Amino acid sequence: MSEATARTSVVIPAFNESGSIGQVVLDLLGSAPWHEVLVIDDGSSDDTAAQAASAGACVIRHPYNKGNGAAVKSGIRRASGAYILILDADGQHQPADASRLVSFLGDYELVVGARSPGSQASLARRGGNAVLNAIASHLAAHRIPDLTSGFRAARRDCLMEFLHLLPNRFSTPTTTTLAFLRAGYSVRFESIDAVQRRGVSKVKLGSDGIRFFLTLVRVITIFSPLRIFLPISVAAFSSGAGYAVWTIATQSHVTNSSVLLIVVSVVIFLIGLVSEQIASLRFEGRGR
To answer: CA 105, 110, 113, 117 torsion: positive or negative?
Structure first.
């Protein structure tokens, strides 16, 4: 395990986390011999950078707040380790779990710290995450127990392949998980218990929940378009065909609405089919 951690760059995005970042860095450095610990200060207005530096981290500063995803991308670009460990700056992730996630990177390209339901912040957030997990599992055709966990370890070279796809806000975990699965990489979800965070969460359940869902749809559309287009096509075709049968039985003719729905369903299916071929070509090109 110590050999894996010695090859790992720890990336910690932080925005106004002066109350917790120092202890987070100290706990990490005391738990294992990491290759480096990078704290990306995303334009904080408090002394987050100073606290992180005094604890022993290498600090990268953004001149203004760009977003959690932008901070993660800055850390990945600056990291020099073969492996990357990403965790939050609020103290909810435990150092022992950090070493455990990294230890699986010999067999897996991505290891996600999947939070147990009881350790997630609130009932509302648990419910929202459960809905997102269920939708993501269906669209990705793979069980995803925790789509939005920011606690994850990955091979740096694999992360670099998808760096251009990562958003600048809070949807980076969603994008990386789905991208790795679609690329055929081995992904492990390792159960962890998150502790109570220090300070106030920067994630807003309403607006960020909608953003997570839209990102989920966008990423699936990029990597597996038919998972989106086919159900819509089937629904349109079923509606058109069903309406046609009803009008033939009751009015002895087929309406323009029925024909339009059936034509639209065929067009949507063809668009999905072409998009699926483009997605396949993208991944064939990635391996060359």
So the answer is: negative
As a whole number of angstroms, the distance between CA 186 and CA 180 comes to 8
Q: Are 144 and 136 in contact (CB under 8 A)?
A: yes
- Of the pLDDT bands very low, low, confident and very high (cuts 50, 70, 90), residue 204 is low
Distances (CA, A) of 269 to 129, 177, 225, 265, 282: 30, 26, 10, 6, 20
Residue 45, helix vs strand vs coil = coil
Q: Are 89 and 20 in contact (CB under 8 A)?
A: yes
Model pTM score: 0.78
Query: Which H/E stretch holds residue 59?
Result: strand 58-62
Distances (CA, A) of 217 to 32, 174, 240, 277: 38, 10, 25, 18
Task: Give dist(CA 140, CA 286) in Å, integer.
Answer: 20
**Cβ neighbours of 165 (radius 10 Å):** 15
DSSP 47: S
Distance CA 196, CA 213 (A): 25
Instruction: Identify the CA nearest to 223 among candidates 170, 161, 268.
Output: 161
pLDDT digits (tens, 9 = 90+) for 63-112: 999 999 999 999 999 999 999 999 999 888 888 899 999 999 999 999 99
Residue type at 45 in one-letter notation: S
- CB-side exposure of 218: number of CA atoms within 13 Å? 14
Q: Pairing between strand 152-155 and 83-86?
A: antiparallel
| Amino acid (one-letter) located at 261 | L
259 vs 251: CA distance, rounded Å: 15
Of the candidates 145, 155, 128, the residue with the CA atom closest to the CA atom of residue 189: 145
Helices and strands, number each (H, E), in the chain: 11, 7
Between CA 15 and CA 12 the distance in angstroms is 10
